[in-house]
Amino acid sequence: MAEEMFLSTSAKPITILPYSRQREVCGARADLALEGPARNGTIIHEGDFFMKTLIIYYSHEGNTDFVAKKIADKIGADTLRLAPVKKYPEKGFAKFFWGGKSAVMAETPDLEPYSIDLASYEQIVFGFPVWASNITPPLRTFIKENPGIKEKRIAAFACQSGAGAEKAFGKLKESIGIDSLAATLILIDPKDKPSDDNDKKIDDFCKKIF
Ligand SMILES: Cc1cc2nc3c(=O)[nH]c(=O)nc-3n(C[C@H](O)[C@H](O)[C@H](O)COP(=O)(O)O)c2cc1C
């Protein structure tokens, strides 16, 4: 029995599979399940367990990239890092001025070509740095180019240095055209300020989107 755990094969019936078979079916996700709900005796529903997830993110200075890779690793998700054709300035006043203006004006900058089969994902996780209490413009472009994503389960995480993420989540929902996000996560400059608290928040978020 030690090597077995509950694995749902539909929303209701529960089948017990050997752990080795679970790894075959779920890959990295099996580990998280063992640490999470299954260990506590809670039934895992199919949607939670098998949801194929794509993390779509923009990162200017590496914090969002750092978190996106951690989440992808934990839940076995794919990632798509968006890149604008015209890069935002990297330093000083120009960085805040042009980035902030672009966010406030809700610009949709052209993106470097990306190739992704959105139809094969049930869940999208958006990740972005908060800019002027708003989402970063490359996400706006992606959302405009892919209006069908509103039919998927959508979660989001934001990196910030102070405040504004809640407002930015509102802007994200507005631009997609949805009323709610399945889960949210807010971190303060997580690459530059690593902490156990951040790791726990990331784990909790992963359990919600798993
Ligand atoms: C143009 C610009 C605007 C920003 N606006 C905010 C803001 O409104 N609130 C905040 O807390 N941090 C703000 N920040 C800080 C970033 O959100 C924060 O450092 C984030 O962790 C950076 O993520 P990244 O490394 O993935 O780019 C801003 C940064 C830039 C460059």
From TrEMBL:
Residues 53-210 form the Flavodoxin-like domain. It comes from the Bacteria. The lineage of its organism: Bacteria, Bacillati, Bacillota, Clostridia, Lachnospirales. This is Flavodoxin. One of its GO terms (molecular function) is oxidoreductase activity, acting on NAD(P)H. Transmembrane segments: none annotated. It holds the Pfam family Flavodoxin_4.
